[in-house]
Write a structure and sequence with these properties.
Elements: E1 3-5, H1 6-11, H2 13-23, E2 26-29, E3 35-38, H3 59-77
Parallel strand pairs: 1-2
Antiparallel strand pairs: 2-3
Length: 107
């Protein structure tokens, strides 16, 4: 654990905080002998905790909305429930008879 004097801690405050985060804590010692410990605070809750929204929807309402959303997405993508199967890939290369002929001119 690193120990800073009061004046060094003021001059290098950002560095001191980074060391406290990395090492767990640092000490600041005043001229009169008092010692203070700086350590990072532990999070009190998960960043994924968000307040809920009261939408007053029933389970059936939510299912209906999800189904409507899926139908509109299928229409947007040009698909219907019966055409969502994988289609065979088209040939990437043309046969020799389908390739355009190159005309060579000498001159």
């Amino acid at each position: 654990m690193k120990i800073y004097s009061y004046s060094k801690a003021r001059q290098q405050f950002a560095t001191m905080l980074n060391e406290a985060r990395r090492d767990g804590q640092v000490q600041i010692r005043r001229r009169d002998g008092q010692v203070f410990v700086v350590s990072p605070a532990k999070p009190t809750h998960s960043p994924l905790e968000v307040p809920g929204v009261s939408a007053r929807l029933t389970r059936e309402d939510i299912v209906r909305l999800v189904r409507q959303s899926r139908r509109s997405t299928e229409r947007f993508m040009g698909r219907t429930a019966s055409t969502t199967r994988l289609q065979p890939a088209r040939a990437r290369h043309r046969s020799k008879s389908q390739r355009p002929t190159k005309s060579r001119s000498r001159g």
